Amino acid sequence: MRYLAPRSACALAVVLTCASLDGATLSRQQAETFERKVVEINGPRRAGAPPRRTSLTQDEINSWFTFRAQPVLPDGIVDPQVNIIGGGRMTGQATMDLEAIGKRRSSGGLLDPWTLLGGRVPITVTGTLQTREGVGRFAMESATLAGIPVPKPVLQEILSLYSRSAGHPRGVNLDAPFPLPAAIRQIEVGRGEAVVVQ
Question: What are phi and psi of 14, to 5 degrees?
């Protein structure tokens, strides 16, 4: 079984959801509970054992984002939050540092529009997570940047910028299916929680 590294834990938390914390109970204890559950998800499985189901609550995920996630978040992304709506639907919100994005994307030319970016703005994405047989797909419904609707190609450009790596030089494709980590078969997204099935 593959190891679920801190970056994968962050990715799992983001995949599971990111909206306001009204009524949420955030604590270091819940952040630790989330980390213990991630270790459990990554733990060994006995051959022939019944499916393992691990519930991750919205408050646990948001607590982890608040108290533990900063070292593994991409530069320029702060205060991620999640709202697990149910029926597969979720909303995610974070604050983006546009100057950091501009520096990554800019060609350095005086007429490059990316050099004009600056400030911090909230970005919100709503969509549905569909998972089956170890593969996930996120169907975006809407996205806003500082309350202004963002076309999907612009969101894709931002996502590509933040997700590029040596193994994935073009970054993550918003429409592409992706393998679920740690032998996860599916994720059941209910109201306020997501259940990881292995």
Answer: -70, -45
Q: Domain boundaries in the chain? A: 6-197
67 phi and psi, to 5 degrees? -105, -20
For the stretch 146-181, pLDDT in tens is 999 999 998 998 888 777 888 888 888 999 999 999
Residue 10's contacts (CB-CB under 8 Å, 6 or more residues apart) are 69, 72, 73
Alpha carbon separation from 117 to 29, 123, 126, 170 (Å, rounded): 38, 15, 24, 22
Helix (H, G, I), strand (E, B), or coil: what is residue 6? Answer: helix
* Structure tokens belonging to residue 48: 């022939």
Q: What is the pTM of this model?
A: 0.78
CA dihedral 186, 79, 162, 7 (to 10 degrees): -50
**Burial zone of 31 (CB within 10 Å; 0-12 exposed, 13-18 middle, 19+ buried):** buried
